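Standup notes, structure subgroup. Blocker cleared on the magnesium ion input:
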Amino acid sequence: MNPKPKDDGKKKPLKGPGMAGSIASVILIFMVIIAVYLLISGASEGNPVIPISQLAADVSAGKVSKITVQGNDLTVLYKDKEVKNSKKETEASLSATLANYGVSKQALDSTELSIQNQDGFGYWTLNILPYLLPIIFIVIFFWYISRQVKGAGMQAFTFGQSKARITDPSDTNNRITFKDVAGCKEAKEELKEIVDFLKNPKKFLDIGARIPKGVILTGAPGTGKTMLARAVAGEASVPFFNISGSEFVEMFVGVGSSRVRDLFRNAKKSAPAIIFIDEIDAIGRTRGGGFGGGNDEREQTLNQILVEMDGFEPNEKIVVMAATNRGDVLDPALIRPGRFDRKVVLDLPDRNDREEILKIHAKSKPLSEDVNLKLIAERTPGFSGADLYSLMNEGAILAARENRKKVFQFDLIRSIEKVMLGPERKSHLLSKKEKEITAYHEAGHAIVASVLPHADPVHKVSIIARGRAGGYTLKLPLEERRLQSRKEFIDDIAMSLGGYVAEKIMFGDITTGPSSDLEMASNLARAMVTRFGMSSAIGPISLTPSEGKPIWGEMREDKYSEAVAAKIDAEVSKIIGNGIKTAEKALKEHKKVFEAIAKKLIEVETLEQDEYEKILVAHGIMLKKKEEPEVVIEG
Ligand code: ADP
Ligand code: MG
Ligand code: ZN
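Run returned:
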């Protein structure tokens, strides 16, 4: 589940206008330049132009009163107030030229000659602009191209700069504090120390205390790691440099490490500050022996981070925070003392925390009186903060779609399922036969779950397709649990096989429907044998690396012999076989209620918990009771 939360204050680098906009502005600039040129040069135009020989004749005839010389351009004012233009030769002076054309000394004397300053603005513009214009145009053209290239992400001129987004402490709109993060009490407690240090570094430095340079936040996706890091910066009112691990790694070698250097340099300039490297597992995985000789670029980036962290003095007042949901794959060099030596673990929220998180996200939404967030929290074990955020959001969307001004409880209840399973696919039409098979299949799951003592109670059964599932039986644990027992696994496997067994009993044939059920059951059975030591034949030995352990170098190779492999397979088959027997027994023993549920499903398609339980009770099946948690007082 990975909902896109509201823009959490990340600032995108400014982007230039679109392509069309740029072209338009270049053309506009060009046109303005041409217009200016025409305006200036046009000042002397519009008059008739005469050859110099004509001018000489007119001067001799005494018709001319004044000649203005401007470079080689002549403006001739006639006695009858007519104005004409002419040009003289480049080298010779006007009087010499006219003399050459046979103008007498007297005639020339009676004409006023005025030589105008040649370095006037207009003169220079007029003369230089024709040469300048293409140059200006080329410059603009290249500037425009380089902007386009940048826009395309190549950043031809800014490779090595870090792309960190900076959140300024004075930016109150995007400021997040601990108040905005619900739950996570232990994590907040640990991080308070960092906040204290950033707020008042002197106090700590004076007493010679060594402040952690690096804090690593680990936890499942959506548990609020990014949010919490942001909140530390908000609490301490320091700048927050935010960059994601994957942003260091580019196509070009050396870019990553130069980005790291740039990032640390910038952060030091505005110390005290927080550098936050999100999803650090993108660069911080265990080094060496990777596929295809390893990723040198990634290694160098990682090395550079280590060098920077080793390199700064305690008085540098920079705390580097990092987040990952794969704490187990990080390079040991990253987490040794002096680097990311503080590890803060964020757990999935428990019931109270879930309620708090729901309350936070409910703030901006008008809720109807019937909304009971406590109940929603109870119904959502295993949801992360991000799931809860998207639950509230879905609820609001449902309400808005139905043109209501307030969010009702049933909007939120519907959203729980939506977040868990994806939206309902009402359009997926089942043929009559398909519908019947699906109904018996789901009823099979449900009855097995309700009859077996260690399976979770059923909350809802439906034959409406959802996400990828054709139908579904929703079961939720009565309470949250961290440990699962062998008995629970066994019953879970039987419950997963309930659909398969139901089809076999009722139709004597199997469809492709239960394939994912079978997969789930087999995986669970295999895990019981090889990871949890829950089979007597193999004993309490772990035979698979725990999920997510680095497998660089040594390819995924099972570390046990063929003989053991055969034994494992036999054990898995045994567990599955037993599961099928258990399910068969359950369905045959309770065939009446099983059929009743299936028929009801064909009729109404979806059974909520109370309707479902009514049918169970009518057939004399005991409902599961919520156990009161035992309170043990020690002392
Ligand atoms: P992570 O980085 O751990 O994957 P985020 O910090 O990005 O998760 O959280 C995603 C969203 O989930 C947040 O923007 C917030 O809306 C919500 N959220 C997660 N945890 C909490 C929490 N403890 N309190 C309030 N909201 C939370
Ligand atoms: Mg995150
Ligand atoms: Zn099924």
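Discussed briefly. The domain at 351-421 is CATH 1.10.8.60 (Helicase, Ruva Protein; domain 3).
Next: hand off to the docking folks.
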